[in-house]
Amino acid sequence: MMKLNQDTIAAQSTVSGEGGIAIIRISGPESIGIIRKVFRSASGREPEPRHLQYGHVVWQGEVIDEVMAVLLPGRHTYTAEDMAEIQCHGSQFIVNRILSVLMECGARLAEPGEFSYRAFVNGRIDLTQAEAVMRLIHSSGERSRRSAMRQMDGAVSREIRKIQADLADLSAGLAAYIDFPDEVDEAETADNLHRKCLEMADRLERECSEKKGRIEDEGIYVALCGKPNAGKSSLLNKLVGQERAIVTEIPGTTRDILRESVMMNGIRFTLTDTAGLRETDNPVEKIGVERAREAIDTADVRMLLIDSSEMPDDSVRKMIEETRPDLILISKEDISREEPSREILQMIGQIPFIQISAYSDTGVEALKKWLCDRADMDLSKEAVFSQTRHVEAAKRAASHLRACAGSIENEMPLDLVNIDLMAAMEEIGQVTGENAAETVIDRVFSQFCVGK
Ligand SMILES: Nc1nc2c(ncn2[C@@H]2O[C@H](COP(=O)(O)OP(=O)(O)O)[C@@H](O)[C@H]2O)c(=O)[nH]1
Ligand SMILES: [Mg+2]
C-alpha cells in the first residue's frame, strides 16, 4: 500500500471526538509551504522553525480557528522529513475542516501508521522500534511502559545485531571452507560448524519468551475456581475492591464468567470468577461450568478455593487433580480459625497454599504478594525476543540452524548447508526489518492507528 514518500500527508494525531485541543500533523516536502499558506501568526511575522506560535488558520479570507502551530523542517523529526503541527480546538468538525483545507493545499490523508512507516523507510527507526511506539501507545501499566521504552531505545535492535554478527562469523567460516577447501581440514570444519549451529539454535530458543511480552502488555490471567459456595466471588470482590460479583449463600449463584482487572506492582492481573465446578442438570449452570473449565484451561495462574468450614471429601481431591492449581486458597479462615486439617493437608500435598478470609482480610496481602512474586518470576527472564512476531522469526531461524546441523551430519555438500544458514540470517533480519518482506512490513504498520 504505502510506497510513495514524495507526497505530503496529514492526519489528526489525537483521538477522534471532542476534546480540549486536537493535534494535526503534517509530514512531507510540502509541509512547511502548506502551513505558510494557511497559518497567520498573531504577531504578523512569518512563523519561525521550531517555535510554537499563536495565530489562526485562515482560508479564503475566513478565520477557521484560533490555533498554535509549529514548523519542523529538516531531518530531526519523527518521520525524518519536513513536518508541521497545528493545535486547534478539539471539535471533530473543526479538525475535519482544517484537514480539508490542508487537502486543498495539496496534502493527502495519511494511512494508519504512515508517519511511523516513513520514519522506518527513512532509516530513523527499525521495525522493532516502530512496534515499540505502538506498545507505548497501548501501554496501561508501568511494566509495559518500561519495556516498550527500552525497545524504542533500541535495546532489542542491539541484541539482534550481536546475534547477526555471530551468524555472520559462522557464515564466513563456511564460505572460507567452500572457497578454499584444501586449506582447511574438512572434518574439523564440519564438526565445528555442526556444534556452532546447534549452539546458536539453542541460544535463539533460550532468548524467546512470548509469555514475558504478553505479561508485560496484557498482564496475567488468574482463574478462581472451586466448588459452589467456596467463596470465589467474595474473594474477587475483595481483590478488585468493589462488589462486582453477586454473592449469596445459594450454591451456583455465579454462572457466567466474570472478568475484572486490578493493577498490582505495575502489572495487570485479570481475575476470572467462574461458576462453581459441580455436576448439574440445570442447563444454564451447565454452560457456566463448561465456560469455567475453559477459563481454567487458558489461565496463566489457577487458584483453587477450598472451603475450610466444610469437611473435605473425595470431590475436593478430584478437583485438585482436575484443575492442577498453582495455588490453593483455604477460604473462610474467620470461621475455622485454625490450621488446615490433616485431611486437607494430605490432599494438597506439595501445592503452595494460603489460608484466607474475604471477611476478615486474613491472607489477602499474602495472596497479593504471592501473585506479584509469581509475575516477577515470569518477567525476570532475560529475552531478546518477547513479541510474537519476533519469537516466531527467532524460532524459524533456530529451525534453519538445526537443519544446517542435520545436513552436516548427513554429509551433504557444504554449499547446501549454506542455504539454510542464509535462511536463518534472513529470518533474524526480518525482526529489525532490514530485509523484511513488504507483506511483513505492511502487516506491522497496518496495526497502527491513524496519525501515528
Ligand atoms: N464466613 C465467611 N463467609 C464467606 C467468606 N467468603 C464467602 N463467604 C460466604 O460464602 C457464601 C458463598 O460465597 P460466594 O463468594 O458467593 O462463593 P462462590 O460460590 O464460590 O462464588 C456466601 O454466603 C458468602 O457470604 C469468608 O471469607 N468468610
Ligand atoms: Mg460465585
Structural write-up:
- The protein has 452 residues and is an alpha/beta fold.
- The protein folds into 3 domains: 9-126, 2-Layer Sandwich (Gyrase A, domain 2), CATH 3.30.1360; 131-209 and 385-433, Four Helix Bundle (Hemerythrin (Met), subunit A) (Up-down Bundle); 215-379, P-loop containing nucleotide triphosphate hydrolases (Rossmann fold).
- It is built from 17 helices and 13 strands.
- It has helices at 31-38, 92-104, 114-121, 127-138, 142-152, 155-179, 186-206, 210-218, 232-240, 283-298, 314-323, 333-336, 342-348, 364-379, 388-409, 414-432, 438-446, and strands at 9-12, 19-27, 39-41, 53-59, 62-72, 83-90, 108-109, 220-226, 258-264, 267-273, 301-307, 327-331, 353-355.
- The strands form 2 sheets. It has a 7-stranded mixed beta sheet with strand order 3-4-5-6-2-1-7.
- Strand 1 and strand 2 (19-27) form a beta hairpin.
- Helix 5 (142-152) crosses helix 8 (210-218), helix 6 runs antiparallel to helix 7 (186-206) and helix 6 (155-179) packs antiparallel against helix 16 (414-432).
- The radius of gyration is 30 Å and the shape is flat.
- The structure holds guanosine-5'-diphosphate and magnesium ion (MG).
- Residues 232-233, 245, 253-254, 273 line the site of magnesium ion.
Describe the secondary structure blueprint for this structure.
Layout: E1 9-12, E2 19-27, H1 31-38, E3 39-41, E4 53-59, E5 62-72, E6 83-90, H2 92-104, E7 108-109, H3 114-121, H4 127-138, H5 142-152, H6 155-179, H7 186-206, H8 210-218, E8 220-226, H9 232-240, E9 258-264, E10 267-273, H10 283-298, E11 301-307, H11 314-323, E12 327-331, H12 333-336, H13 342-348, E13 353-355, H14 364-379, H15 388-409, H16 414-432, H17 438-446
Parallel strand pairs: 1-7, 8-10, 8-11, 11-12, 12-13
Antiparallel strand pairs: 1-2, 2-6, 3-4, 4-5, 5-6, 9-10
Helix pairs in contact: 4-5, 5-8, 6-7, 6-16, 7-15, 15-16
The protein binds guanosine-5'-diphosphate and magnesium ion (MG).
